[in-house]
From TrEMBL:
A Pfam family that the UniProt record links to this protein: LpxC
Protein name per the record: UDP-3-O-acyl-N-acetylglucosamine deacetylase
Names of the cofactor(s): Zn(2+)
UniProt entry keywords in alphabetical sequence: Hydrolase, Lipid A biosynthesis, Lipid biosynthesis, Lipid metabolism, Metal-binding, Zinc
Active-site residues, record numbering mapped to chain: H262
Species the sequence originates in: Roseivivax jejudonensis
CC terms in the record's Gene Ontology section: membrane
GO biological process: lipid A biosynthetic process
Keyword S-adenosyl-L-methionine annotated: no
Thylakoid recorded as keyword: no
Function: Catalyzes the hydrolysis of UDP-3-O-myristoyl-N-acetylglucosamine to form UDP-3-O-myristoylglucosamine and acetate, the committed step in lipid A biosynthesis.
E.C. designation(s): 3.5.1.108
C-alpha cells in the first residue's frame, strides 16, 4: 500500500549553490497526492511545484524543477532519493527558498529523519512504472538505458582523470533496503579545479569540505577521506534514483548509466514516456512489494554518519 510520513520532519542547512540558509519540512500527505514541493517564502500565486519529470529545466549541476508560474526548486535529487529509497509515496515538501539544503552532501540525514519519524500506511495500492522494452539515450558525454527487469536494479560506470576517483563500476539490486545501507551516505563530489571555476561564476557558494568530497589529482582534500572506496559511483547511483523518482512511481527495470548525470536521466524519462509500449503502470501485489526500495529496512541499518 502507499505510504506517507507519520509526522512533519524539518531540516536546516544551506543551499549548495546559493550559499543561502534553507529550511525544508517534509509533511504527511494523503493517498494519490504524490510528492509536491511548496515554496513558503512566496506569498502570491502558484507556489506548488510537482516533483515530476516533465517540469525539469536544464541545469548541468543539479536537478531543478519549475512550475508553470516560473516558481522553482533546485537540487531536489538527494531528498527525492531519500523519499524513494525509504518507500515514501506521498508528501508535501515545504521549503523557504529556491534550493534544498545540501546538509552533508548525501541523502543520509534525510533518511534518518524519515525513518526516525516512521511511515504511515494509506488506503491505496502502490503502482509502479514497469519497463517493457529497452529505451536508451546517448550524448557525446555518455549514455543511459532502462531495460525490463523483475525488480529495481542499477548498473553504473564512471571514469574521471583524477586518480582519487578514476574508473569505478557498481551494480546493485535496490530491494530490501539496499539504498539505505549501500548508497544513502555517499556524498556529492567534485574536482578542486571545478570548485574554483564554479565559484568564479557565482556557483557552489555553499559548498565546503564538510558537505562534499573534493579531490585534486590523487588526493582527497575532504577531512576524514572517503566513506567508501567507490563513494563517487555510489553517489551517482543515489542521484539517479532521485532523478528516476520524478517518474511519479517506482520504476521497475534495470537502469544502466555510463558517465550519465542528471540531464541524461531526465532525457531517458522523456524517451520512455514518448515511446509507445515502452512502459506501463502496474499495481504492486505482495510478491512484487518486496522488490521495491524501502521495504524491509531495519533501523540499525541506517548509516552511522546520518
Amino acid at each position: 500500500m502507499q505510504t506517507t510520513v507519520r509526522a512533519a520532519i524539518t531540516f536546516d542547512g544551506v543551499g549548495l549553490h546559493s550559499g543561502r540558509p534553507a529550511r525544508l519540512t517534509i509533511r504527511p500527505a494523503g493517498a494519490e497526492h504524490g510528492i509536491w514541493f511548496k515554496r513558503t517564502d512566496i506569498r502570491l500565486g502558484d507556489t506548488l511545484v510537482p516533483a515530476r519529470w516533465d517540469v525539469v529545466q536544464r541545469s548541468p549541476l543539479c536537478t531543478r524543477i519549475v512550475n508553470a508560474a516560473g516558481v522553482e526548486v533546485q537540487t531536489v535529487e538527494h531528498v527525492m532519493a531519500a523519499l524513494a529509497g525509504c518507500g515514501v509515496h506521498n508528501a508535501l515538501v515545504e521549503i523557504d527558498g529556491p534550493e534544498v539544503p545540501i546538509l552533508d552532501g548525501s541523502a543520509a540525514p534525510f533518511v534518518r529523519g524519515i525513518l526516525g519519524r516512521g511511515l504511515r500506511t494509506l488506503a491505496a495500492p502502490v503502482r509502479a512504472l514497469q519497463i517493457l522494452k529497452p529505451v536508451e539515450v546517448r550524448t557525446d558525454a555518455g549514455w543511459a538505458r532502462l531495460s525490463p527487469h523483475d525488480g529495481v536494479r542499477m548498473d553504473f560506470h564512471i571514469s574521471f582523470a583524477d586518480a582519487a576517483i578514476g574508473t569505478q563500476r557498481k551494480s546493485l539490486d535496490l530491494s530490501n533496503g539496499a539504498f539505505v545501507r549501500e548508497l544513502s551516505d555517499s556524498r556529492t563530489f567534485c574536482r578542486k579545479a571545478d570548485v574554483d571555476t564554479m565559484r568564479a561564476h557565482g556557483l557552489a557558494l555553499g559548498g565546503t569540505l564538510d558537505n562534499a568530497v573534493v579531490v585534486e589529482g590523487a588526493r582527497v582534500l575532504t577531512p576524514g577521506g572517503l566513506r567508501h572506496a567507490d563513494e563517487a559511483v555510489r553517489h551517482k547511483m543515489l542521484d539517479a534514483l532521485g532523478d528516476l523518482a520524478l517518474a511519479g512511481h517506482p520504476v521497475l527495470g534495470l537502469y544502466e548509466g555510463h558517465k550519465a548525470g542528471h540531464a541524461m536521466t531526465n532525457l531517458l524519462l522523456h524517451e520512455v514516456f514518448a515511446t509507445d509500449g515502452a512502459a506501463r503502470l502496474v499495481e504492486i501485489g505482495p510478491e512484487m512489494r518486496a522488490r521495491l526500495p524501502g521495504v524491509g529496512i531495519q533501523r540499525e541499518e541506517i548509516p552511522a554518519v546520518a
